Amino acid sequence: MATNVFFDNYSNFNEQQLVEDLVIESIKMYGVDVIYITRVDGAVDKIFNEDDLPLYNETFEFETYVKNVDGFEGEGDFLSKFGLQIRDQMTLTVANRTFEQYVTREQGTVIRPKEGDLIYFPLSENIFEIKFVEDESLFYQSGALQVYDMVCELAEYT
């Protein structure tokens, strides 16, 4: 059984633009401004494929929506054999067009949020590291993707 040929919900640009405008407006109303800090590789170890000296040199401010309504998620605070560890997590949502407007236009190589970048969250005055970026959280609503979900964890200073 084929879908109805008279209703094409997934290639209508005006409807996609309307949904994106509504998402951006709701994030502006219920969101919070954060500072996004981009990461640049400083000294990459080719054997272990890790960066021992990352550089954070550019900041961008934009609005995000906090998906955690009950507080920080994650494992929370616990005592381990290494002492007190705080593993707070939160999920932030940013609109694709907002990210492009504030970050991609200024720094053309960054087209989406990247794992390893930092987010300064002013309400708790903490710095979070982006651990995972989900680009299909609103799964093709009207045939397009409107937001990125960034799963962030409290940054460990080492």
Care to describe what's here?
This protein has 158 residues and is α+β, with helices and mostly antiparallel strands. It has helices at 13-30, 96-104, and strands at 32-40, 44-45, 50-51, 55-66, 73-80, 83-95, 118-121, 126-134, 147-154. The strands form two sheets. A six-stranded antiparallel beta barrel has the order 1-4-6-9-8-7. A two-stranded antiparallel sheet has the order 2-3. A hairpin with a 4-residue loop joins strand 2 (44-45) and strand 3 (50-51). The protein starts with 12 loop residues before the first helix and ends with a strand.
Count of DSSP strands: 9
The largest sheet, given as strand count, sense and whether it forms a barrel, is: 6 strands, antiparallel, barrel
Helix content: 10-25%
Work out the helix count.
2
Taken in chain order, the helices and strands follow as HEEEEEEHEEE
Shape label:
globular
Straight-line N-to-C gap: 58 Å
Give the rounded overall mean pLDDT: 83
Low-confidence regions: none
Radius of gyration: 18 Å
Judged by helices, strands and strand pairing, the structural class is: alpha+beta
Assembly of the depicted chains: single chain
Kindly report the spatial arrangement of strands forming the biggest sheet.
1-4-6-9-8-7
Q: Percent of residues in beta strands?
A: 35-45%
